[in-house]
């Protein structure tokens, strides 16, 4: 993913999330079934879990199992309309106990 964007550019935000299953109970199919949502915003204030700006990634996620861990590749098309520092957040799972992660940052010039 580019670290510097230009206002009006439309590019993919892409990142990976690695899930560990210490008990070894999850299967690849179960991880593939987990919903992941992304939120891209100006600034780095962590958004509320219930914010309306959360969306499903625009490209279907790809999950790969590597050494007992699950690597989830996420791609989301985003149009940069505001200048300044932007942050990409990801949340997953059906319960509010799952944290919100800051996955990436970039600057729009």
Describe the model.
The chain has 109 residues and is mainly beta. The chain has a single domain (4-108), classed as Immunoglobulin-like, CATH 2.60.40. Helices cover 5% and strands 51% of the residues. Strands 1-7-6-3 form a four-stranded mixed β-sheet, with no helix packed on it. β4 and β5 (69-79) form a beta hairpin. The protein is elongated and about 45 Å long. The relative contact order is 0.36. The model has no long low-confidence stretch (mean pLDDT 92).
Summarize the structure.
The protein is mostly beta strands and 109 residues long. The protein has one helix spanning 28-32; strands spanning 4-5, 10-20, 36-42, 59-66, 69-79, 84-92, 101-108.
Entry keywords:
1 helix; four-stranded mixed sheet; three-stranded antiparallel sheet; 5% helix; mainly beta; Immunoglobulin-like; elongated; 109 residues; 7 strands
**Secondary structure tally: strands:** 7
**Helix/strand order:** EEHEEEEE
Q: Looking at CATH, which topology would you report?
A: Immunoglobulin-like
The total tally of domains equals: 1
What's the helix count? 1
Taking all Cα atoms into account, the compactness measure Rg is: 15 Å
Instruction: Please give the share of residues in helix.
Output: under 10%
**Residue ranges: pLDDT <50 for 5 or more in a row?**
none
Just name the CATH architecture.
Sandwich
Largest sheet: 4 strands, mixed
How are the strands ordered across the major sheet? 1-7-6-3
Which percent range describes the beta-strand content? over 45%
Gap from first CA to last CA = 15 Å
Decide which structural class fits the backbone: mainly beta
CATH class: Mainly Beta
Question: What general form does the structure show?
Answer: elongated
């Amino acid at each position: 993913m580019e670290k510097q964007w230009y206002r009006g550019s439309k590019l993919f935000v892409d990142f990976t999330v690695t899930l560990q299953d210490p008990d070894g109970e999850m299967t690849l199919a179960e991880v593939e079934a987990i919903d992941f949502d992304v939120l891209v915003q100006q600034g780095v204030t962590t958004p509320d879990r219930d914010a309306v700006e959360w969306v499903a990634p625009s490209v279907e996620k790809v999950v790969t199992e590597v050494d007992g861990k699950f690597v989830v590749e996420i791609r989301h098309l985003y149009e940069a309309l505001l200048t300044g520092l932007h942050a990409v957040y990801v949340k997953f799972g059906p319960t509010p106990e799952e944290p919100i992660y800051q996955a990436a940052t970039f600057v729009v010039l």
